[in-house]
Amino acid sequence: MLLPKFEYHEPGRLSEACALMAELGEGARPLAGGTDLLVNMKKNLIKPRHVVYLGRIKEITSLKQDSKGFSLGSFMNIADIAGSPLISDKLPALSEGAAGLGSPLVRNLATIGGNIASARPAADMPPPLMVYGARIKLNRKGRSRLIAIEEFFTGPGKTLLKAGEILSEIIIDEPPVFSGASYIKFGMRRALEISLVSAASFISLESPEGIITKARIALGAVGPVPLRARSAEAVLVGEKPSASLFERAADAAVTDARPIDDFRGSAEYRRDMVKVLTRRTLEAALKRASH
Amino acid sequence: MKQFAVIGKDINRNDAEAKARGQALYTDDLKLPGMLYGSILRSPLAHARIAHIDVSRASALNGVRCVVTGEDIPKVKYGNWRLFPDTQDEYALAVEKVRFIGDEVAAVAATDRDTAQEALSLIRVEYKELPAVFDVEAASQPGAPVLHDYCPSNVSVNRKIQYGDIEKGFAESDYIREDEFNVHAVSHAYLEPCSALAQLDQDGRITLWSSTQVPYIVQCLLASTLGMRENDIRVIKPFVGGGFGGKMELRTWEFCAAFMARKTGRPVKFTLSREEEFLTGRRRHPMKIRSRVGFKKDGTLVAKDLRIKLDGGAYNAMGPTATFLCGNFGAMLYRYPNYRFHGEHVYTNKPPASAMRGFGAPQSLYATETQMNIAAQELGMDPVELRLKNAQVSGDKIPDVATISSCGFIDSIKKVAQMSNWKKKRKSLKPGQGLGIGCYSFISGGVFNWFNTTYPFSAAEIRAFADGTVHLLTMTADIGQGSDTALKQILAEELGLRMEDIRITSGDTAMTPQADLGSWGSRVTLMGGNAVLDAARKIKAQLFGAVSARFNMNVIYELECKGGRVQAKGRPDKGVSFGEAVAMVQRANRGEPIVARGSYTPRDKGLVTPAFGFGAQVAEVEVDQETGIVQVKKMWTAHDCGTVINPKGVEGQLCGSIQMGLGYALCEQFVMDGGKTLNTNFLDYKMATAVDMPPGDVAHVETYEPEGPMGAKECGEGLASPTAPAISDAVFNATGYRCTDLPITPEKILKGMKRGFI
User: For the whole prediction, is pTM greater than 0.90?
Assistant: First the structure.
């Protein structure tokens, strides 16, 4: 099927894009990589009257680093994130998420902003971003707001993004010393896969041999939105890392997950995998933290 | 062994460069002036009576040139089994009833694809839904919903094989094992979706370009369904991006393209979407297999009783052949003195199953080989030894099937065990690691004339020219398997020419000699190759006569075509170049060019095939014991395909077979909700990707097949069978979970490990 008819806009600046989005209202959709939007438009699932392409906006295409941390432009494409030595060094869980997203062709087009804003429960960017405590910047005409990424998702395909708003930036604080994170995407094959379950873990240690001062665990594809496994995190904080501690945290994560049976797999198997992946990501995060 | 110049060499494929450069034209690449785009309306219901169809709004849509439904078409049923017209159960468009979700109801031709799609949404169909049945057991119970009035039992084909004394055999057995296996449907998943383009000429003739494995069958069935003469239809097969059995029948879009081209006078093209292919496309038969085998204490096979119910879906398609063959494959690998088979092909309200690489063998051999592995374990024997004890050998007679001529089965088993270091490795595995074995036998083309062709099974025409070139014409269909290259190699070898001296025209029913049954059943190398040899020998006879006369040779001289020359054997001075020899014959015939026709039809070759391929495969796996994920670490294959015509081509077939076999074993499946397929894209239909593919080693155990061209036999389909049982056995070896219902999903492995299944 060809695309339904729409008006196409190509603003050069973020302020222009916001003004356009404000003017066009509900009928407008921002277009980034198009790997989700254009597919759904071709399937006639959505028919926006206006499409606002974000790719000409230089402000949102780059990775910046300052003393506090990192800012990723929402138009950064996944292949660039996967290939960035800086991200691989400082934010390895994000690098792992990007490397396993879709196929090389999809990674060359898809953007981090698109992967967040499309709000698919199995998306690969949100879990690592959640455990890094990322915040996202939403711009509308004349103002912007900053929210924690995990608050952004309200349901499958649903977010706090309001009509006229554009996701412009992802802000991640520099992870503290003695901290580490890891992401595992789990599916039936080793490429071109959608997660059956995914998990990301972050831990921060008091010292290389010390107690866990901060823990964040995020789970994908086991609920309507990517979830924080808060009871698992509670098990970890204040304790010294050990195999049995991670095992208990993994058990707790299972209770945090809310998987369903669908044609990709059963809820029971997904729960089993939450346990395995939580433990494995914690082990990998610990290795990186105490490295 | 005979020394060859071209045979057995890694010759680059005929089509490689065109494909690599993107210059190869597939059917959907073809565009003709004024061409219309076709689209098909499909049933949303699994079983329903069509009460009324209103196409008025669709017909009135701007840009729509033609709308047809089952009411408009000639009421002629078709199906490949012309020999038994009762089995022909399909109309191009549904008449009165729809029988599966996706059954074709109407077709639209419009000036562009979007208009055609929009027109489909304007067709109003009033259905009266009927109870549907999706399971072979339920469908074959009395009182089940009936799909076809002619077949109230829903069992459309019954096939029985029996020899020896089965009861006596089991009575004499020391060990009897009975199992039920359930194997599932998988997709051919050829990368080129089905496509057909039809054009009407001034004289009312039809030319159809189609992505098909069987130009001749399409020509004949299209003629009968359109009420035209066969030779008023020309079917051309452009480059084809894979078929694997899924493109070997006349299909709705081929009929509709031709029918609508006749109605509108304009070319009409249909190309299916991937979603259509997955939702409604042909697939491998799911089978419910009950197998009982009896052994002596020492492992000697005594008896086998095999019952198979094939889930045929809504129409027969190639189901009758699959029903016949799965019974033959049940006793093709080993010597069973007492054998009984009963196969039933059952209609259900699902997309029709049909031929798919292996044609009943992957299913039947999954049961055979898994059961051999179970038996070996219970008898306390090495699975390799158990096989060696019972393996077919050259000269074995399979009752009602054939006497096996060349057979490298035992050598293949021994070789693969040696390559994989079987004995030592199997004992030294760590938890989660496993090694398993599976074997196969396969046919090199079919003998049974179900299509009821009145022509030879395969034919070739060769035109030889004074400039040293020849033109080979054959109706065989290269669908990506490389048959054009293999046939050219056979011809180059026989005439002593180089590959670049040969032009080939293939797969065009108006331009190439009648006939060829198509690319299926691993028949082309043997049958097409024999036809080429037959024609080539007739050319040689003429050349030899002329050269003999020219040099006034003693009649006892042997002549040969070698290195571009026609000469006395051992006396290259008594000879001329190939082109000069052709010129001499041509002059002697007063300018008449040299043309020879050859053919091959298997005669007195039993009921199944003229030659059998054999092989054995070992898989090494590592199972993640927490997730159940299986990683295939390595595959070893030793196989006998007779003379290897093109090693690179054979290895390509092997890699493709492992990719399909691995998918069949582990991850590919149609997820169905009743009659509806839920996974209709490549994201959710889990084919193994390049990074999922294991490395492998291969040994060609060459034999010389007397019935094959240059000693060759099949290598295209047999290899599709051993991978699943080998992987399954390796998974058992690794985890203790023995899978009897494919695919072997991680979830099943974890559950099986918890149960401690043996």
Answer: yes
